[in-house]
Backbone:
């Protein structure tokens, strides 16, 4: 007996209604990307390991799906790694390519390779799948779409201001009216590490801090202690663990903690710039919050960082995030090319809209009318009419088999087709069509022109 097929963990099949809802989100995001001046690009689903590895920190590198070299890949493994069963070393020897972990690093590679063909500042958006070998759970998948917008070639903080506005526009259009856009600054975090004397442990400090929502203060402090950050150092920044929601109060808190850090004060100045101008411009429905413990684990951020939380009614992780990366392209040899970008988490946004029942009723673009099949001559008569309906943008189809009427009608009902057309021998003789409204149960006899007008 054949084994029942299954899906890899963390992946999903999508039915037509799922695809229609996802396309609704994608088209909404894409529309606003273009309104803000972003141009679409696409990059390959896999990249060279030299492009990806080392760009996401130790934790990120572990989550990258590596692709085995084709052919006898073990020939490239060194005798030493084979003898020692050193899977980490061997992994680098038998793989040269990996599935992309995100869209930002491939974008940086794209910019460097195509530098002479681009006009700067270059604004791009990209909506494509990415892959991470993460532990699957609600809202976290191993294959998922990212919807990214980035500007590269400008250090202006007006870009950060516009990204806050872009988040607000998109979520307002999706009727997500209780969204919080969290903002912080990597220089603030670096300044905190500096004032407690732990600058050499900045990565350990930020990675632990970024887990506050997941493991709580006690868990964060425990992880910091395990990484060699002293209890005295942790106590110095303890006020940040109890910071509230007021943006200005949090700025004042950081100003007091970072009096001795020039780098930290620069981060505060950037945050003040964004906050001041967003206050003047206003937001439609989102809230802007200075989250003083927000760190984001990716090593390449150097300035403002963002994370978006959905409504508190939904227990789910972030639905968006991003930040500024002043030296990302420097990794590929292009120095002094500042960039900033944000991402929308399509799959999590989908779950939020579903849970809050925010998808519009008309989002599923289904067949509007189905013609019953009574036989070869009748089917040909029906297809001539269907051809005319389709020319006018009306979604129409013919049931493929001349099955019993009940079976064909049940099929239309199950698919929620609103109208059915009966075109049998009597209709053909009169050059007419019988249109049945499946919801009201009423029937009308029309010629072709009347049929088209009634369905338009």
Residues:
């Amino acid at each position: 007996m054949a084994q029942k097929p299954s899906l890899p963990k963390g992946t999903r099949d999508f039915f037509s209604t799922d695809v229609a809802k996802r396309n609704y989100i994608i088209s909404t995001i894409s529309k606003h990307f273009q309104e803000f001046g972003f141009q679409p690009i696409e990059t390959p689903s896999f990249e060279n390991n030299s492009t990806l590895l080392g760009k996401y920190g130790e934790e990120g590198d572990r989550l990258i799906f590596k692709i085995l070299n084709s052919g006898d890949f073990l020939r490239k493994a060194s005798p030493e790694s084979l003898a020692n069963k050193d899977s980490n070393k061997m992994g680098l020897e038998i793989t040269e390519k990996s599935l992309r972990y995100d869209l930002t690093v491939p974008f940086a590679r794209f910019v460097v390779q195509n530098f002479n063909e681009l006009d700067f500042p270059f604004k791009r958006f990209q909506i494509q799948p990415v892959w991470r070998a993460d532990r699957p759970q609600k809202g976290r998948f191993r294959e998922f779409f990212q919807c990214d917008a980035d500007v590269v070639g400008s250090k202006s903080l007006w870009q950060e201001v516009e990204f806050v506005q872009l988040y607000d526009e998109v979520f307002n259009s999706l009727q997500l009216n209780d969204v919080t856009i969290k903002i912080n600054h990597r220089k603030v975090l670096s300044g905190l590490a500096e004032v407690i004397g732990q600058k050499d442990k900045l990565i350990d400090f930020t990675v632990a801090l970024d887990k506050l929502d997941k493991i709580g203060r006690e868990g964060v402090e425990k992880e910091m202690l395990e990484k060699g950050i002293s209890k005295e150092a942790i106590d110095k920044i303890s006020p940040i663990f109890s910071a509230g929601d007021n943006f200005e109060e949090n700025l004042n808190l950081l100003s007091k903690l970072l009096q001795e850090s020039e780098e930290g004060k620069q981060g505060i100045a950037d945050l003040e710039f964004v906050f001041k101008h967003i206050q003047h411009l206003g937001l439609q429905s989102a809230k802007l919050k200075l989250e003083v413990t927000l760190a984001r684990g990716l090593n390449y951020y150097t300035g403002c960082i963002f994370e978006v939380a959905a409504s508190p009614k939904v227990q789910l992780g972030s639905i968006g995030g991003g930040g500024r990366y002043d030296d990302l392209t420097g990794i590929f040899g292009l120095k002094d090319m500042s960039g900033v970008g944000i991402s929308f988490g399509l799959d999590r946004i989908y779950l939020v809209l579903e849970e809050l029942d925010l998808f519009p009723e008309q989002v599923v673009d289904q067949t509007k009318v189905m013609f019953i099949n009574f036989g070869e001559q009748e089917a040909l008569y029906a297809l001539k009419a269907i051809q005319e309906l389709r020319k006018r943008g009306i979604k129409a189809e013919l049931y493929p088999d001349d099955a019993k009427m009940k079976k064909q009608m049940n099929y239309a009902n199950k698919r929620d087709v609103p109208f059915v057309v009966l075109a049998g021998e009597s209709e053909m003789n009169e050059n007419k069509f019988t249109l049945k409204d499946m919801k009201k149960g009423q029937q009308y006899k029309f010629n072709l022109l009347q049929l088209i007008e009634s369905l338009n």
Summary: Residues 16-45+100-355 form a domain with the BirA Bifunctional Protein; domain 2 fold (CATH 3.30.930.10). The mean pLDDT is 91. The chain is about 40% helix and 20% strand. The longest helix spans residues 16-35.
